[in-house]
Design a protein that fits this description.
The complex is a heterodimer. By secondary structure, chain A is α/β, with parallel strands linked by helices. Helix content of chain A is about 35%, strand content about 30%. Chain A has helices at about 45-50, 75-85, 100-110, 115-130, 145-155, 175-190, 200-205; strands at about 1-15, 15-30, 35, 60-65, 65-70, 85-90, 160-165, 195, 210-215, 215-225. In chain A, the strands form two sheets. Chain A has a six-stranded mixed β-sheet, with helices on both faces. In chain A, strand 9 and strand 10 form a beta hairpin. In chain A, helix 3 crosses helix 4 and helix 4 (about 115-130) crosses helix 5. The radius of gyration of chain A is 17 Å and the shape is globular. Chain B has three domains: about 5-50 and about 280-410, no CATH class; about 60-100 and about 230-270, no CATH class; about 100-225, no CATH class. Chain B contains 14 helices and twelve strands. Chain B has helices spanning about 5-15, 20-55, 85-95, 130-135, 145-150, 160-170, 195-200, 205-215, 235-255, 270-315, 315-325, 330-360, 375-405, 405-410, and strands at about 60-65, 85, 100-115, 120-125, 140, 155-160, 175-180, 185-190, 200-205, 220, 220-225, 265-270. Chain B has a six-stranded mixed beta barrel. The chains are: A alpha/beta, B alpha+beta. The interface of A and B includes residues 54, 95, 114 and 158 of A.
């Protein structure tokens, strides 16, 4: 599903150059639930951003579902993001003046889905994350966990190939974190490929594979025995 | 632009950001509203000033006769030209379209006027009713010479304020009889003249009465016309010169005078007053345009500012939309369409409100210097479009930039 070869990325700030990714080689198969770990500054978020086409690598190759992601202009990148990827952010990034339902329906709007169908599909995904009753509430009326579940529903709405989650539990307490992880595991069980960036070992243990980054290099990549989040809830 | 889905999304956004929509709309609507009112009152004041000063002889043509200096068609030079009633009537009829007020004069210089034991020498003039406006005479008591006095050759007189003071010593002169060279005339009015004492030392009689009473036959001494005001000074000058030249030729033709004999028939036209009024009107217009343009600039800056803030405020939203797959141009388009819609709608609202107020309040204004405040509709519409365009432009630049920002930057937590 995801193939990365010799990926480099550096940031330039004035005369200083920061080499963040120093040759990452990394493959993800369909249906995997991978966590990317590492201390801050290890390059894990940069990697996720490149995977998410929110940022571009300096060199190396990236193939997503047999599509080479290369020389993207804004238009194509937007198109690919819309079709292939679903994002889950630490700070949820819901549009605060839109109801939960409208937030979930937004990627569908950019796919050109008609209004009625958008609402039906969005409702379906809200039901999936257990927030059907909250569909007409604004993000400000929802708890953190609920917001993240709306964000997950939104990420799922466009039926992407891969879900990318950047510290999805970073802003949540432990109990809520596990609830969200339970939801993510459930989605993975249905066959969705999911990548999670986290620095919390307990969250990482709930995935099926942990990739450890340090100073821009993968130092460890191993499958783990998945701990079901439902056991903790 | 005509994508229904896009419009739904925009209305959704606008209706869920009521305060923002309202404030943007308010600034645009109030800008247009103020501008409409300003321009309206500018026009009103211009109209008022024009109508106030139209009373004065702003564009006066006077015709006097002298003696010929050139031989013409077998007639000797040195011939005295006498203007006749027919000359006046001919000119009056021929140029009726250009003439506003008219009067011919039969004058007795230094005529002796008596009332009881008081007497004095004053200029006695036979005139037509139009002279009131030519002289800018202000009737303080009674009335001026009217058309019925002319038609019925009445023996009535209108006296200047100085004459009234001299002869009547505070007594009410109306309906009293004064004697001119032994002939009695009933005083029907007293007038003031902005020209001062000299101009108030006059006695006006109906022209035919004066001609009849003082053996004037159908002779007139001179005639005066005021011409209608053209819209601008250059046009007024051109018209005045054309008309006065035409009148001169007409009279020379009637009196068989050489066309280049400047002494026999003399025509003067005074445009000085007109120049002052036109420059006053122009100044008023310029001041209001200055203020108006200032208002538009303030409006443009205001709208631009709001658009900048809106886009700034929405940077994160734009990042989210881009992460979800929005094309950069759909972001720019969305923001522009929103801003154009809001500015257009509220601009037209302000326009209608302003026009409505002018329409409603205009007729109620009772000032001599403000008349018929109104706005040229095209100007107003043009202003709305300028504001809309400025709003769009002011929105476009930050929107374009925001759309260019990589979503990763826009989404960065602060």
């Amino acid at each position: 599903m995801i193939e990365i070869k010799d990926l480099h990325k550096s940031y330039h700030m004035g005369s200083n150059s920061l080499h963040v990714l120093k040759g990452i080689n990394f493959n993800v198969k369909e249906g995997e639930l991978v966590s990317i770990m590492g201390s801050s500054g290890s390059g894990k978020s940069t990697l996720l951003n490149i995977l998410g086409m929110l940022d571009e690598a300096d060199s190396g190759s990236y193939t997503l579902g047999n599509v080479p992601i290369k020389n993207l202009n804004e238009k194509i990148a937007a198109n690919y993001r819309n079709k292939f990827l679903g994002f889950i952010f630490q700070s949820f990034n819901l549009i605060n003046y839109k109801s939960a339902l409208d937030n979930v329906a937004l990627p569908l709007y950019y796919q050109g889905v008609k209004r009625k169908e958008r609402a039906d599909k969005a409702m379906h995904y809200l039901e999936k994350v257990g927030l059907a009753e909250w569909s007409h509430h604004l993000p400000s009326e929802l708890s953190g966990g609920q917001k993240q579940r709306v964000a997950i529903a939104r990420a799922l709405a466009s039926d992407p190939k891969v879900l990318l989650a950047d510290e999805p539990t970073g802003a949540l307490d432990t109990k809520t974190s596990y609830e969200v992880m339970d939801l993510i595991q459930g989605i993975n069980d249905e066959g969705k490929t999911i990548l999670i960036v986290t620095h919390e070992p307990d969250i990482a243990q709930m995935t099926k594979r942990i990739v450890n980054l340090k100073d821009g290099l993968i130092i460890d990549d191993s499958k783990v025995e998945q701990i079901r989040a439902s056991a903790h809830v | 632009m005509f994508d229904l889905e896009r419009w739904q999304e925009i209305f959704d956004t606008l209706s869920k950001n009521k305060l923002r929509t309202f404030l943007t709309g308010l600034s645009v609507a109030s800008g247009i509203f103020i501008l409409v009112i300003l321009l309206g009152f500018s026009t009103g004041i211009q109209n008022g000033v024009k109508s106030q000063f139209q009373k004065d002889a702003t564009n006066l043509v006077s015709i006097w006769a002298g003696t010929t200096t050139k031989e013409y068609k077998g007639l000797n030079p040195g011939r005295r030209i006498q203007l006749k009633n027919d000359d006046f009537n001919a000119v009056s009829n021929k140029y009726a379209d250009n003439i506003e007020h008219e009067s011919s004069f039969y004058t007795i210089w230094g005529g002796l006027v008596n009332y009881k034991n008081e007497s004095g020498n004053y200029r006695i003039q036979g005139i037509l009713p139009g002279n009131q406006f030519i002289e800018n005479a202000d009737v303080s008591q009674g009335r001026f010479i009217n058309i019925s006095d002319i038609d019925n050759v009445k023996k009535v007189a209108v006296i200047g304020n100085k004459v009234a003071e001299d002869l009547f010593k505070g007594e009410d002169p109306i309906d009293k009889y004064i004697t001119l060279y032994g002939i009695s005339f009933k005083v029907v009015g007293v007038f003031y003249d902005p020209g001062g004492e000299r101009d108030e030392s006059k006695v006006f009689l109906p022209l035919p009465t004066a001609q009849l009473a003082f053996n004037g036959a159908d002779n007139i001494r001179n005639m005066k016309f005021t011409l209608k005001m053209a819209d601008d000074f250059d046009q007024a000058v051109a018209e005045s010169q054309a008309v006065s030249a035409a009148i001169e030729n007409e009279i020379k033709l009637r009196q068989t005078v050489a066309p280049d004999d400047t002494n026999a028939v003399r025509v003067y036209n005074t445009l000085e007053e007109a120049r002052k009024i036109y420059s006053l009107v122009d100044t008023i217009a310029a001041v209001f345009w200055f203020v108006g343009i200032g208002t538009i600039i303030a409006g443009v800056v205001g709208v631009g500012n709001i658009m900048l803030i809106i886009v700034k405020e929405r940077t994160k939203e734009i990042g989210i939309r881009k992460a979800l797959g929005a094309q950069p141009w759909s972001i720019v388009g969305m923001i522009l369409q929103e801003s154009v819609f809001v500015t257009m709608f509220s601009g037209l609202f302000g326009l209608i409100l302003g026009l409505g107020l002018l329409e409603l309040v205009g007729p109620l204004i009772e000032s001599d210097f403000i008349k018929y405040p109104q706005v040229d509709f095209n100007t107003a519409i043009a202003t709305v479009f300028i504001l809309v365009f400025a709003g769009a432009l002011a929105g476009f630049i930050p929107a374009y930039r925001a759309a260019k920002i990589r979503p990763i930057v826009a989404l960065r937590d602060e």
